[in-house]
Amino acid sequence: MSFPTALSTTRSAPIILDIRQISKSYQGVAALENASLQVRKGEIHAVLGGNGAGKSTLIGILSGVTQPDSGEFLLEGSALAPRNPRDAIKSGITTIYQELSLVPALTTLENIFLGRELIIERAGMKVLLDRKKMKNEVIELAQIFGISKDELDIPISEFGALKKKVIEIVKALTFDARILILDEPTSGLEEEERLHLFDHMRNLRSRGVGLIWVTHHLDELHGLADVATIFRDGRTLESLNLENSTVGEITNLMFGIQSNEAGLRTKNDRLQKDDKSNRPEVLSLHAVSRAGVLRDISFSLHAGEVIGISGLAGAGRTELARVIMGIDTRTSGQIFLKGKEVNFKSSAFAYKAGIAMLPEDRKQLGIISGLSVAENISISNLSSVSRFGFIISRKKERELATKYKEILSIRTPSVNQKINNLSGGSQQKAIVARCLNSKPSVLIIDEPTQGVDVAAKTEVHELIRDFTSKGGAAIVIASEIQELLELSHEILVLRNGSIVGRIENVQNSIEKSRVVEIKAEVLALSAGKRLKNEI
Amino acid sequence: MANQRFNISMKKFLSDPILGVIILLLLVGGVASFTVEVFFTLQNFTNFLSGSYFVMLLAMGMTVVLISGGIDLSIGAVMALCAGIVAKLALQGMSVPLVIVCALAVGAFVGCLNGLLVTVVGLPDFIATLAMSAFATGILFIWTKGTPIVGYMDETYKQIGGLAPIYREVTVPMVIAIVVAFALGAMLKKTKFGVHLFSVGSNRLATRQSGINVTNIRILAYVISGVCAALSGIIMAGRNTTVPPDLGGGYEVLAIAAALIGGASLMGGRGRILGAILGEVVLAMTINIINLLGVPSSYQKIFIGGILLLAVLVNQLVISSRTKILMRSTNKK
Amino acid sequence: MKFKNFFFRSVSITGVPIFGLLILIVALFQFVVPIFNATVGDYITNLVPVLLLTVGAAIVIIGGSIDLSIGTVCGLSAGITMWTLASGLPTALSILLGVATGTFFGLLNGFLITKFGINDFIATLATLNISGGLLIVLSQATELYGAESEFFTSLVYGSFFGIPTSFFIAGAIILLMQFLLLKTILGRRIFAMGNSGAAANVAGINVRNVKLATFVLSGTLAGCAGVLLASRLGGVQAFLGLGYEFTAIAGAVVGGVSLAGGRGSAAAALAGGLFIGTLAQGLQLIGVEPIFFGIVSGLALIIGVIFDQKIQDIGQLRSRFDSRVLAQPPRKEGDHG
C-alpha cells in the first residue's frame, strides 16, 4: 500500500509533526509497528481504526505516557522524546483525553494556570496570586472560545462536558500547543454541542495548530477533517485525502474486509432454523430506564438465542448489563425472567435466579485478584462446593476447578495458583467457568475477548456457542461488530442510552459484501446518522 | 444575557460550601429561641463562644487537611500535649514567648511526622494520625504520671486562656482565632499554595501531572493542622488552669464535625475557613442549648457522637442535592 | 493430615514472621526476666479480652473496612453486664445482655456504613463516642461493681486442669472465628470482598450483607470481651475500653492482617495480639512504665504496615516473574486485535 501522492502536492503547508517508523510492543506482542504519519500546520488529521488498532499506543507515545521501542518523531524539525506528559506539553504537544485532566474543585482560571501561576510582589514577598494579570493574559483567547470573564472564576465542576473540553483547549493554547491531540472529543456531547466543538476545531485550524483527531464517528469527518490516517493491527495503512474518499472506503480499510475470510462461520445451525417463537422466552425487558443512563430499553431473549449489543463507549451498554444484574438500580420499567417479574437488589439474587455476568473490566471487576483460580471459579456458587450448606470443601472446590481447567483449557500449572499470575485469556476463561458454574439460564458477557489473544478468542466464542446450543441464552456486548455478527442472532444498537436500531435475524453465513453493509449500518446508527445513501 | 448572568451567580452561590451551614445556623438558632429563654442574651453568647475558640482553631486546621484530601485524628491529643508542654515549661520558669514557641514547634513537628507517615511511608491517613494520637497521649501520660499538672498559672496565662480579657470583651483566644482565620482564609484564596491544596484534594493525578510537588503540599497541610492544634493547646493550658492527662480526648471528633458541617468534604477539594468557624458555632450553640435544657454534662460525649453522624449525613445530603439541582439546571438549558 | 493442612493454612507465609517473632521475644524475656514464667499465666488472663478484640478487628479489616468502636463498645458491654448483675438479673441473662450490647453496636455500625453510605472510620468514630458516652452516663448513674455471682467470676478465675476458664472460652471463640474465616462460605465472601469489593459485587456476592456481617461479628466479639473484662475486674470505670481498639488494630496488623483488606486470619491476629501483649508485659517487668504501651502499639502498627507493603511488593515481583514464565510465546504479528 502506498501513500496517495496527490495528498502531499495539494497541501502546501509545512509539516510540523513527523512521525517516523515508530514501533512499540508489550510483552512480545506488537501494539504499534512502523507507524508513520505527518501532520501539517493548520491541518485536522483524523486517526481512525478499530479497537486495538494501535491508536491509543501512538497517543501514549506522543503525549509522553509511554516510550517507543524504536522510531522517532520530530516536532518542527527537531526530534522529541518526552519522558512524561509534562515534557510533551512543554514542547508543544497537548493531549485532551476522554477523561478530563482538569481539577474539578478549581476555577477555570486556576486550572488554566495550574502549576505556573503568576505571582504578585507585595512588600518584598512573593506569595500572592496575581489573578488580574492571569485574567488579562487569557481573557482574549477565552472569549474567542466562548468563555466569558465571569466563567473564569467558576469551579470546573459546575460546567457541562462541552465547556470542559473547550477549557482544556484554551489551557492547551496558553501552553502554546502546536499539536493538539483530541481523543474522541465528541463523546458525551449532545448534537448541538458537537457542532460548537467543530467550530472551535476549525478555529484552531485557522490558528495554525495541527490537530490529531481520534474518532470512531465516521460521519463527523466530512467537511471537517482534511486528512485521515487509518490504523489496523498496529500499522498505519493509508493516509486518505478526505475530499475524495467515501465512508464505505474508509470502513473497508478500517476493518480490513478485503483481507478477511469470506462471510462468517456457522453460529448454530439447528437453532437458527427454528422459528424464534417456538423457543421459550427467558428474559424480557419492558421499558427499562435508569435516570441519565438508560431510556426505555425493551427486548426479549429466547432460549438458545444470543442478542448482541452494539454501540460506542458511553452509549449505555455496560450500564444495561449492570441494571439487569441488579448491581445498579433501575428507575422505571420491568424485567421478567422466565415469565416472572424480578427486581434484584444485588447481583447475588441475579446469580441465584440464573443470570450470570462476565464484566468488561477484567482486572478491576472480573478477577478477584488475591484469590486462587479455584476460589475465583467457585465464588459465585459456593454451595456447589460445600457440605452442610456452609462449610467449603477444598477437595470439591479443587475437583470443580480442575474439571473446568480441562474443559476450557485454562493454562495454569495448578488451580491453587493465584489468578493474577495467569495470562489474560486464561483469566477470562476462569471467569467464564465461574459463570457457567452458577448454572445460569442467561449469560451476560461484556466484551468477551478484550485483551485476549486470538487463540483464546476463538475458544471463548466456542464456549458461548456451546452454552447456547444447550439451551442457554446470552447477551453479548462488544465493540467489534465482526464479533457480534459471528455470535448473535439479533443485534441491538445503543446510543445515548436508547435502542436506536435492531438488526434481526442475523444469518449464519453472510456474504462479505453484506457484512460490510451491516457494519456500516451499525456504525452509522451508533454515531447517530444514517449513511445508507453513501454505501 | 441577564439570564446567563443570573445563572452564573446562582451557580456561584450554590457551589459555595457555606450555604448549608448558614441554613443550619438559622435552624439551630430558631429552635433555641423557642425553647430556651436565656439563649439570646449577650452573657450566654460570650459564654459559649469563649468556650469554642480552641475547637474553632482545631476545626480550621482540620479543614485544611480535609481540603488536601486527608484527615487528622491526632489533633485532640496534640492539643493536649502542647498544653502539657506549656504547663511543664512554665513551671520550670521559662519565659512566656519561649514557651509558646516551643509548643508551636512541637505542633509543627508532630504535623510533619503525620505528613511523612501518610505520604512517604504510605500509611492510611486515619491510621497514621491515630498512631500519632497514641504517641502524643502516651507522652503526656508519662509526663503527668497520671495526675494533672497544676500550679503554673499566672496573670499572663489567665489572659492567654481568655479567663481575663485584654480590653473589655476582647480576649486573647478571640484575637488568635480571628488572626488565624484571616491568615488561613487568605492563604486558601489568595496564594499559590492554597490553589494547590484544593487541587491535590480534588484531582491528585492531574495536579502531579501539572508538575506540582504533591507530597510537599500534603505534608504542609498536616503541619498547618499541627500548628493549629498547638495554638489551641496553648489557649487550653490557660483556660483549663490544669493539664490532666486525658485533656485531648474527643476534641478531634468535634473538629471533624465542625469542618464537615462547614462544608468540607471527606473526599477532599472542598471546604472553607469561614465554614469551619460557623460549623463550630453551630456545634457550640447545640451543646449550649443542651446544657441550658439541663441535660447533665455526662451526656455530652453521646451527643458529640450523634452530632458527628448528623454532620456527615447532612454533608452528604447537601452535596447530593446540590448536584441534583445543578444537573437539572444544565439539563433544562 | 487434614489438621496439618488447616494449621499451615492458618499460619501461611505471612504468618511465619509473627510466630517467629513471638517465640523469639518469649524466649528473650524468659532469659532476661526470671519471674516472667511465673507471671505469664496471669498476664495472658489479663490479655484475653484484648485478644478477642484483636480477632474482631481482624475480621473487619480482612473485609476491607475498619472498626474504631470496639474498645468502647467492649467497655460498655462490661458496664451493662455489671449493671444488670448488680441489679439482680440472673447471671446468664446478664452475660447475654452484655454480648447483645456488642452485637447491637455491630449492627448499628453496619447499617450506618451499608445503608447510609457513611465512611467506615467516621461512622465507628461516632459510635465510639456514643458507646463511650453511654458508659460514662451509666457509671455516674449507678455503681458498677460488687456483683456477687460465683459463676460470673469463675468465667475468668475458675480453672480446668490448672488452666483458667477464660482460656477455654476465648480459645473456643477464636477457633470458631478461624474456622468461620477459612472454611465457611461467609468467610470466603469476606476475603473476596476485602480483596476487591467491586469485583465481589459483580460476582454474585451481596457485599452489603457481608460487610454488615463483619461488623456484627466484631461487635459481638467486643461484647464477649466486655463480659470477660467485667468478670476479671469485678468493677467497671467510666473510661473502660478507651484505646483498646488501637491495641487491637495494631495487634491484627502486626500479625499480618493487611490494612488493604483480603489478607490475614484469626490465628495471625491472635499471634499479633500476643506479641504486643508479651512485649508490653516483658517491658513492664523490666521496669518500663506501662504508659509506654500506647507508644509501643503505635510503633508496632507502623512497622506492621510497612512490612505488609514489603510483602505485597515481593508478591508483585513474584507474580510478575510467574506471569512471564506462564506467558505464551508471542504470536505472529498481525494476528491480534
Automatic annotation (TrEMBL), chain A:
<dbReference type="Pfam" id="PF00005">
    <property type="entry name" value="ABC_tran"/>
</dbReference>
<dbReference type="InterPro" id="IPR003439">
    <property type="entry name" value="ABC_transporter-like_ATP-bd"/>
</dbReference>
<protein>
    <submittedName>
        <fullName>Unannotated protein</fullName>
    </submittedName>
</protein>
<dbReference type="InterPro" id="IPR050107">
    <property type="entry name" value="ABC_carbohydrate_import_ATPase"/>
</dbReference>
<dbReference type="GO" id="GO:0016887">
    <property type="term" value="F:ATP hydrolysis activity"/>
</dbReference>
<dbReference type="GO" id="GO:0005524">
    <property type="term" value="F:ATP binding"/>
</dbReference>
<feature type="domain" description="ABC transporter">
    <location>
        <begin position="17"/>
        <end position="258"/>
    </location>
</feature>
<dbReference type="InterPro" id="IPR003593">
    <property type="entry name" value="AAA+_ATPase"/>
</dbReference>
<keyword id="KW-0067">ATP-binding</keyword>
<dbReference type="InterPro" id="IPR027417">
    <property type="entry name" value="P-loop_NTPase"/>
</dbReference>
<keyword id="KW-0677">Repeat</keyword>
<keyword id="KW-0813">Transport</keyword>
<feature type="domain" description="ABC transporter">
    <location>
        <begin position="271"/>
        <end position="519"/>
    </location>
</feature>
<keyword id="KW-0547">Nucleotide-binding</keyword>
UniProtKB/TrEMBL annotation, chain B:
<feature type="transmembrane region" description="Helical">
    <location>
        <begin position="166"/>
        <end position="188"/>
    </location>
</feature>
<feature type="transmembrane region" description="Helical">
    <location>
        <begin position="48"/>
        <end position="66"/>
    </location>
</feature>
<protein>
    <submittedName>
        <fullName>Unannotated protein</fullName>
    </submittedName>
</protein>
<dbReference type="GO" id="GO:0005886">
    <property type="term" value="C:plasma membrane"/>
</dbReference>
<feature type="transmembrane region" description="Helical">
    <location>
        <begin position="21"/>
        <end position="42"/>
    </location>
</feature>
<dbReference type="Pfam" id="PF02653">
    <property type="entry name" value="BPD_transp_2"/>
</dbReference>
<dbReference type="GO" id="GO:0022857">
    <property type="term" value="F:transmembrane transporter activity"/>
</dbReference>
<feature type="transmembrane region" description="Helical">
    <location>
        <begin position="97"/>
        <end position="119"/>
    </location>
</feature>
<feature type="transmembrane region" description="Helical">
    <location>
        <begin position="273"/>
        <end position="293"/>
    </location>
</feature>
<feature type="transmembrane region" description="Helical">
    <location>
        <begin position="219"/>
        <end position="237"/>
    </location>
</feature>
<feature type="transmembrane region" description="Helical">
    <location>
        <begin position="299"/>
        <end position="319"/>
    </location>
</feature>
<feature type="transmembrane region" description="Helical">
    <location>
        <begin position="126"/>
        <end position="146"/>
    </location>
</feature>
<keyword id="KW-0812">Transmembrane</keyword>
<dbReference type="InterPro" id="IPR001851">
    <property type="entry name" value="ABC_transp_permease"/>
</dbReference>
<keyword id="KW-1133">Transmembrane helix</keyword>
UniProtKB/TrEMBL annotation, chain C:
<feature type="transmembrane region" description="Helical">
    <location>
        <begin position="7"/>
        <end position="31"/>
    </location>
</feature>
<keyword id="KW-0812">Transmembrane</keyword>
<feature type="transmembrane region" description="Helical">
    <location>
        <begin position="43"/>
        <end position="61"/>
    </location>
</feature>
<feature type="transmembrane region" description="Helical">
    <location>
        <begin position="212"/>
        <end position="230"/>
    </location>
</feature>
<feature type="transmembrane region" description="Helical">
    <location>
        <begin position="266"/>
        <end position="285"/>
    </location>
</feature>
<dbReference type="Pfam" id="PF02653">
    <property type="entry name" value="BPD_transp_2"/>
</dbReference>
<dbReference type="GO" id="GO:0005886">
    <property type="term" value="C:plasma membrane"/>
</dbReference>
<feature type="transmembrane region" description="Helical">
    <location>
        <begin position="121"/>
        <end position="141"/>
    </location>
</feature>
<feature type="transmembrane region" description="Helical">
    <location>
        <begin position="161"/>
        <end position="182"/>
    </location>
</feature>
<keyword id="KW-1003">Cell membrane</keyword>
<protein>
    <submittedName>
        <fullName>Unannotated protein</fullName>
    </submittedName>
</protein>
<dbReference type="InterPro" id="IPR001851">
    <property type="entry name" value="ABC_transp_permease"/>
</dbReference>
<feature type="transmembrane region" description="Helical">
    <location>
        <begin position="291"/>
        <end position="308"/>
    </location>
</feature>
<feature type="transmembrane region" description="Helical">
    <location>
        <begin position="236"/>
        <end position="259"/>
    </location>
</feature>
<dbReference type="GO" id="GO:0022857">
    <property type="term" value="F:transmembrane transporter activity"/>
</dbReference>
